[in-house]
Write a structure and sequence with these properties.
Low-confidence stretches: none
Distance between the termini: 109 Å
Shape: rod-shaped
Number of domains: 2
Largest sheet: none
Structural class: mainly alpha
Number of helices: 2
Mean pLDDT: 81
Number of strands: 0
Helix content: 40-55%
């Protein structure tokens, strides 16, 4: 009967799939236990390994870079000068360009 034959083929297919799955799991477990396998990351969270070393943190001066000044600076936008010395420099630039 054809339905019995189809049933037997389907059952044999199920058995074959179960055996193949068991073998894959056994191999994976063996690799993990032996320490040969690296933990697998999913494609969505995987990132390529970095070929460049990590950037060093930029060291900024603790205060104004003008000689003898200990006031806090205004950061890179003000060339690490305090407000007073930055304003003096800007005034000097304007006077120089006004001539």
């Amino acid at each position: 009967m054809p339905s019995d034959r189809i049933r037997r083929i389907a059952q044999q297919f199920i058995v074959d799939v179960e055996q193949a799955t068991r073998l894959d799991l056994q191999e994976e477990l063996k690799r993990l236990v032996d320490g040969m396998a690296q933990p697998q990351r999913s494609a969505t969270t995987a990132s390529p390994p970095s070929s460049k070393p990590a950037k060093k943190k930029r060291k900024t001066p603790p205060h104004c870079v003008h000689d003898g000044c200990v006031l806090p600076h205004g950061g890179p936008g003000r060339s690490y000068l305090c407000k007073q010395h930055y304003d003096e420099r800007e005034r000097a630039k304007k006077e120089g360009s006004a001539k």
